[in-house]
Amino acid sequence: xxxxxxxxxxxxxxxxxxxxxxxxDYAVKKKVVMPESMAxxxxxxxxxxxxxxxxxxxxxxAGGFTFFxxxxxxxxxxxxxxxxxxxxxxWQALERxxxxxxxxxxxxxxxxxxxxxxxSLASRIAATVSRQSERAPERAEMIAGYEKxxxxxxxxxxxxxxxxxxxxxxxxxxxxxxxEFWQGRPNRFHDRFRFERGVHGAWTVTRLWP
Length: 210
Prior knowledge:
Layout: H1 9-12, H2 16-29, E1 37-43, E2 49-55, E3 58-59, E4 65-70, H3 74-81, E5 84-91, E6 96-106, H4 109-116, H5 121-129, H6 139-154, E7 169-183, E8 191-197, E9 203-208
Antiparallel strand pairs: 1-2, 1-5, 3-4, 4-7, 5-6, 6-7, 7-8, 8-9
Helix pairs in contact: 5-6
């Protein structure tokens, strides 16, 4: 792979998901800060957009991009009404961007439980007490709610400190229908390739002007 160099289709290959994995692994190897950070854009049925950063938690064998959140958050409400979204990764140190667009589905309970079990107890407590996107009281009250649950768990015997996943918390999988790779070049004359999935699942690719 080339640092800040030119990008040709041969560098990416025919499968954009495989190309993404290679770029992501390279970003990890180069110690890019939080390479899993991605902008997630959603929209209401009438087309009003919103955007925020979340963390990529995996790209599965079927090619889906997964992330987790509160199912009562703004993003979840928008995905419920309009299950289309877009992701954007920006690795400034490598002068690279990747954009992903597609339909979004919820993960099943088994997948949600499996990921929940990997989170620290502190993170599970925070997710349990949070009413994401709702109006919040003073921060002191928020902290008090966290500490109340923390103390309640500490009072239990070691074998009874398990904190079950809230029903309103879980993950999503974005199924890519389009992916774009951007490599920075001098004088803003960048390289861009856009992959689009056809009706039968095959990918077509086009070089775009910067």
